[in-house]
Design brief:
Elements: E1 3-7, E2 12-16, E3 23-29, E4 32-37, H1 43-63, H2 72-86, H3 93-111, H4 121-139, H5 145-164, H6 192-207, H7 215-229, H8 235-240, E5 246-250, E6 257-265, E7 268-273, H9 279-287, E8 290-291, E9 306-309, E10 312-315, H10 329-338, H11 353-365, H12 370-376, H13 381-387, H14 398-401, H15 418-422
Antiparallel strand pairs: 1-2, 2-3, 3-4, 5-6, 6-7, 8-10, 9-10
Helix pairs in contact: 2-3, 2-5, 3-5, 6-7, 7-9, 12-13
């Protein structure tokens, strides 16, 4: 059995294990059992070291160097573990990876050693200042507002995990001081003149590509521009779209030939009715031979017809093939640069998303019902009013704004008779 002695009034235990020649010491301090090795074989020297060790622990506990509560690092580890399990299948892998990156790269190095009760509104503001100075020193510019917003969201969710576990009584104030309401700016889009300039440029490139081997890509891009600007699909929705998801129908209400599209995107499954301008691009996409390499499909795996053109295998797409198996980002940006359409007037870069914004803006300019647009684009009326309708000039009715109230005509002064001039005027006479 191991030998054991007590010192410091029973607060410190000095003992020796059976398989060790060195003495160990232990003490219960700050709600936790703590132990260490004295690394001494002499009992007297071991007792002296144990006394010094205990006094140092008491000093650290008094100054706050020893945490008696859960730290932010422990709360972050629990939060990330829960988040991976609970949100599986609900959040994209990229977003979950971003939560891990924000926690491990920025939040834990700053807050990790702190007890949860030490994270106050002042410490959060210190973190904002630290991130600003760090980013300016390394990259020459401060972090974007959205970057800081995402990091504070991760911080809030971590602290909420601590509250659920009973490690923290309440959340500190995480609001950003000194910040007024941010200016709401509209999304980058193509005006009617710019949109015409864009699709004419893509049509020209489709008919005469700079390199013959990129003809298929150029034709696909031209049809993508027309298809997106006439449907309002998000880029990720367009990339998930299969041929079986779109059907050409005759719309009874409008009498036009349109596409009915079953959309699968970030809002789940929704439906979209296109403009008539999307029908012809869809027919071209369906009839166009495509290289089998673009989506890695095995020849004939879904009943598609096959053809041979030289050494490259071509085939007609099948019902389960993606309509846009590849996004021609480099070609799209090259055409934007050539036509001086890369950025809008405020300097915001135009992307594939700008085609969705163009669809919404053009529909509003034509007087379409904002509620129907929101339903067709799988978004809210509030979002459209905030980011689109505010800058569409046709939403302002000049006839309703420039109303002028008619001014009453002044009564002409009539000469008073002698009787009228002598008669007193009373309220009852009026």
């Amino acid at each position: 059995m191991a030998e054991q002695y007590t010192i410091m009034g029973g607060k410190v235990h000095v003992y020796q294990r059976q398989n060790s020649s060195c003495w160990q010491c232990s003490s219960y301090l700050g709600g936790k059992n703590r132990r260490t090795s004295t690394k001494e074989e002499s009992l007297s020297k071991a007792k002296e070291i144990a006394e010094d060790w205990y006094l140092q622990l008491r000093g650290k506990l008094r100054t706050g160097e020893i945490k008696t509560e859960k730290t932010f690092r422990q709360a972050s580890e629990l939060y990330l573990r829960e988040y991976d399990i609970i949100t599986q299948g609900e959040r994209s892998k990229g977003y979950v990876r971003g939560q891990h990156c924000r926690s491990q790269v920025h939040l834990v190095p700053f807050f990790g050693h702190m007890g949860l009760s030490e994270i106050t509104a002042g410490k959060v503001q210190d973190y904002r200042v630290h991130r600003h100075e760090e980013a300016v020193a390394t990259r020459g510019k401060p972090p974007a507002h959205n970057t800081m917003h995402q990091e504070i969201v991760t911080l809030r969710q971590t602290l909420k995990t601590a509250v659920r576990q009973g490690w923290l009584d309440h959340l500190p104030d995480l609001s950003e001081p000194y910040r007024s309401s941010p200016k709401i700016s509209h999304r980058a889009w193509f005006s009617p003149e710019e949109y015409k300039k864009l699709y004419e440029a893509t049509r020209k490139r489709a008919h005469a590509p700079k390199q013959a081997r990129f003809k298929w890509e150029s034709e696909q891009l031209h049809d993508y521009v027309l298809f997106s600007a006439n449907t309002g699909l998000r880029p990720d929705e367009a990339r998930r779209l299969q041929f079986r998801d779109a059907t050409i129908v005759e719309d009874d209400a409008s009498g036009q030939t349109i596409l009915e599209i079953e959309v699968r995107g970030k809002r789940g499954v929704g439906y979209c009715k296109s403009m008539s301008g999307a029908v012809r691009p869809f027919e071209r996409l369906k009839a166009r031979l495509r290289p089998a390499r673009v989506d890695g499909a095995i020849m004939g795996d879904n009943g598609s017809q096959l053809a041979k053109n030289g050494s490259d295998a071509l085939r007609l797409p099948g019902p389960t093939d993606l309509i846009f198996p590849k996004w021609q980002r480099e070609l799209f940006n090259a055409i934007l640069n050539e036509e001086n359409l890369r950025s809008d007037r405020e300097g915001r870069p135009r992307t594939a998303y700008s085609l969705r914004h163009t669809y919404i803006c053009l529909r509003l300019m034509e007087g379409a019902d904002i509620y129907q647009i929101a339903k067709n684009c799988r978004t809210s009326v509030e979002m459209i009013e905030k980011y689109y309708a505010a800058h569409i000039k046709t939403n302002l009715d000049a006839a309703a704004i420039n109303i002028m109230r008619l001014k009453p005509k002044k009564k002409q002064n009539q000469p008073k008779t002698q009787n009228q001039s002598r008669r007193p005027t009373h309220d009852a006479d009026v």
